[in-house]
Write a structure and sequence with these properties.
four-stranded antiparallel beta sheet; three-stranded antiparallel beta sheet; TATA-Binding Protein; single chain; 7 helices; 2 domains; 44% helix; globular
């Protein structure tokens, strides 16, 4: 079974005492933002996930259930499956050295026009994998599966929050997506 990397946006960060149930359910494969006091509970939380599944949809839905079952009142608001990467992450994925990627970013190597970073804070920059892969001319089969899967699941998450009585069950969403979206074999 393939392993999928994705992120979840949560209704709030987890409290430290909520980590053990999540760890037990996911065997440490989900990393979350935590808070130590209720004063910071108003901001969204996030979870980085690496999960095996027959499809990306199945992997996401399984983790959504684990995360929400681990902490009362915690809800997944959105999913993202086109990761943000550091220069080191990019180098590893494209099979190049750190310096080779750094030179491509600065325009000193390659055709120029390297994608702009998506986030730049405190001297740290992150790039969207789909844009970097396209620049290098790489086809990542997981990205082909990710775009429609994430769009459908985010629609389901929104529907579930607005009118939960009409939202289909998670397994129905996964089953429907497996019929129409190509997945990594």
């Amino acid at each position: 079974m393939p392993s999928y990397d994705f992120a979840l946006i949560l209704s709030r960060p987890l409290y430290e005492d909520e980590l053990d149930p999540l760890f037990d359910r996911t065997h440490g494969a989900v990393t979350v933002s935590i808070i130590s006091d209720a004063a910071h509970a108003e901001r969204p939380g996030n979870a980085s996930c690496s999960w095996q599944g027959p499809t990306l949809a199945a992997a996401i839905m399984e983790v959504v259930q684990h995360v929400e079952a681990s902490a009362p009142g915690l809800h997944v608001l959105q999913v993202e499956a086109d990761p943000l990467l550091t220069i080191r992450d990019i180098a590893e994925r494209v099979g190049r050295s750190f310096d080779s990627v750094r030179l491509a970013i600065t325009g000193a190597r390659g055709p120029g026009g390297f994608p702009a970073s998506e986030i730049s804070t405190a001297g740290h920059r992150l790039w969207r994998w789909s844009k970097v892969a396209a620049w290098y001319g790489l086809e990542d089969p997981q990205l082909v599966e990710a775009k429609p899967t994430v769009q459908a699941i985010n629609g389901w998450l929104a529907l579930r929050d607005v009118v939960p009585d009409v939202a289909p069950a998670p397994e129905d969403v996964t089953s429907a997506l497996s019929l129409v979206i190509p997945h990594v074999a």
